[in-house]
Write a structure and sequence with these properties.
The protein is an alpha+beta fold and 584 residues long. It is 32% helix and 25% strand. The radius of gyration is 25 Å and the shape is globular.
């Protein structure tokens, strides 16, 4: 299948999806996650499809309905932005102007009436003024790049030379900062890497400025190589750690980056549904169908061929943050040294995959997943929390972490984020597993029955699944109540190892309300040690369990300094951090 074939397939899939969500009564396309609400930017993309299909009258009506969601009240703090939904009374999502501009700039303006072209120029001019006021920080990579893309192409297409000049200046500055680090600040994201690639590839193909085209091409190559190094070709998953990932990304469903990769690789599994996720699965397909990508041959080779890589990458200089990944044909394991943040000073964003693994297995969908989330106020460990909620609903990260990894071994330490004075009934770390059945999980040599099982800290949990053995040793947590310290249980289709700091009556935690103040003595301790091995390396799970038990593991707190070490000598994974300041 050629890239032309994949382009046509994505266009038809995307058109079918947009058509299915179009509401004639509103004249707009419904939000795929909230079908009772309607959005402007997907409606403009649908209008571009209708223009391609020859229905200019319907396209014009839809564009006008979308433009009517622009905030036009003089004096409004977000004058020129767009309401995210028709049903919103005010501008809520400040990124709406960038997504609307991106869609408007993809329209074939020569197929529209002169009157509507004038309305689009007027709306874009107001949106550019709002974007300039917002001035999205360069660390907010996907929106910053959308702003650059929209200013450069919008300035050229709509005859706004000052806007184009601003875009080129911002592209130069972003490229310089990104090269100084070596990776996009919003690094290795299964969703937002696609936005970055779309912006840079579109600029490299469409800009009238030789400088913008050349620089965008260079940075597109940087992003392709960055993503390819983490890609686990054996399972078709973007190995971790991830700066930002939604539930669909974490569990390995077809998302925005996979749609881009399908355009390049023509691998049908990238668009396949997975039993781990139920939700919309046609993300950005019309957008991707129209873009010409420029993936370097060395990056494409990494994307296509399973290999072994041991990676250590700096993804932020201030504060210094390291991403570590071990990738083999059987599995990928990735960890991040500290939480991801955006802005100056950085604001912690709760979508990071601090520790995540994917591995090969024969049963559908062909891979398993391990990921972590610290949870505040999630109820009792052992009581299903995914029932009665949409299957796509995210589990946000409520904690702060510090981790270290050496090859296939990792130690991950967690504390809690400031809790304010809200009442909470639980504080715990969840290690969540998708794929393994209860019988694949062994404690003290005995297969697990699947019933909620309290464990003592330090008791190893061994998982034998697919092509790997996984060993997890929960460390002794700070006890803030009287609940069991570790619980192994099933949450819907996921097996969960919960390491509990508190479970009991709802209460306010004065000691942790701001991570400062009169009662502050340091953060709670939580965490675990992890090892993954290719199944071919051990004759039986008992042999792997014996090797795990024989691996040195220490967890020592002296004063406010905690040191966790897993392994011996140069091959140990060791993290040392201060419990008061969470400083590595």
């Amino acid at each position: 299948m050629t890239t032309l074939d994949t382009s046509q397939r994505l266009y038809q899939r995307g058109l079918t999806d947009l058509r299915s969500r179009f509401d004639p009564a509103a004249g707009l396309v419904r939000d795929p996650f909230r079908l009772d609400r309607h959005q402007p930017h997907p409606s403009i993309w649908y209008a571009s499809c209708l223009l391609r299909e020859g229905d200019a009258a319907a396209a014009e009506r839809m564009i006008r309905a979308a433009l009517a969601l622009q905030e036009r009240h003089e004096g409004d703090p977000h004058h020129g932005n767009f309401r995210w939904h028709l049903e919103d009374n005010v501008v809520i999502d400040l990124n709406a102007c960038q997504f609307a501009l991106e869609a408007l700039l993809a329209l074939p303006l020569d197929r529209l009436s002169a009157a509507l072209r004038g309305c689009i120029v007027d709306a874009a001019t107001l949106a550019f003024a709002e974007a300039k006021r917002l001035d999205a920080h360069w660390t907010y990579t996907n929106i910053h790049l959308l702003d650059i893309h929209n200013r450069i192409l919008g300035g050229e297409i709509l005859g706004l030379p000052d806007v184009q000049r601003q875009g080129i200046e911002r592209l130069r500055a972003w490229a310089e900062r990104t090269r100084a680090v070596g990776a996009p600040h919003e690094f290795n994201s299964p969703t937002y890497a696609a936005v970055d690639l779309n912006c840079l590839a579109d600029l490299a193909s469409r800009s009238q400025s030789p400088e913008a085209r050349d620089l965008a091409l260079q940075m597109e190559h940087l992003v392709w190589r960055h993503i390819a190094r983490y890609w686990h070709a054996a399972t078709g998953q973007l190995g971790g750690p991830h700066s930002r990932a939604y539930r669909r990304d974490v569990v390995g469903a077809s998302g925005f980056l996979k749609v881009v990769l399908y355009r390049l690789l023509a691998d049908e599994s990238l668009l396949a549904r997975t039993p781990y996720y139920e939700g919309p699965d046609s993300e950005g397909e019309v957008i991707v169908s129209r873009i010409h990508y420029h993936c370097p041959t060395d990056a494409e080779a990494m994307l296509r061929t399973p290999a072994t890589r041991d990676m250590h990458e700096t993804v932020s200089l201030a504060p210094r943050t390291e991403a570590v990944a071990y990738i083999s044909p059987a599995f990928s394991l990735g960890t991040l040294s500290r939480p991801y943040g955006v802005g100056d000073p950085p604001e912690h964003w709760p979508m990071t995959d601090a520790c995540i693994a994917y591995w090969k297995r024969e049963q559908a969908p062909g891979y398993g997943v391990l990921h972590t989330r610290y949870r505040a106020g999630a109820g009792s460990a052992g009581k299903a929390s995914r029932e009665g909620v949409p299957a796509w609903l995210d589990i946000w990260e409520d904690g702060v972490f510090r981790s270290a990894q050496h090859g296939r071994r990792a130690v991950v330490a967690y504390g809690i984020a400031p809790r304010g004075m809200r009442q909470l009934d639980s504080l715990r770390l969840d290690i969540r597993l998708l794929g393994p059945q209860a019988s694949h999980i062994v404690i003290d040599g005995q297969p697990w029955s699947g019933e909620a099982l309290p464990l003592a800290s330090g008791v190893p949990v061994v998982i034998a699944d697919g092509d790997v053995y996984i060993g997890i040793v929960p460390l002794d947590p700070t006890r803030l109540g009287q609940a069991p310290t570790v619980v192994l249980w099933r949450d819907g289709d996921e097996s969960v190892i919960s390491i509990v700091n508190y479970e009991g009556p709802p209460k306010q935690f004065w000691e942790y309300r701001s991570l400062a103040g009169p009662f502050w003595k340091g953060n709670v301790r939580n965490g675990f040690a992890l090892c993954i091995a290719d199944r071919a390396e051990y004759a039986t799970s008992e042999a792997f369990a014996a090797a795990l038990a024989g691996t040195p593991l220490s967890d020592v707190t002296t004063g406010t300094t905690r040191t966790i070490s897993f392994g011996a000598g140069e091959v140990a994974a060791t993290v040392t951090y201060d419990l008061r300041e969470m400083r590595l």
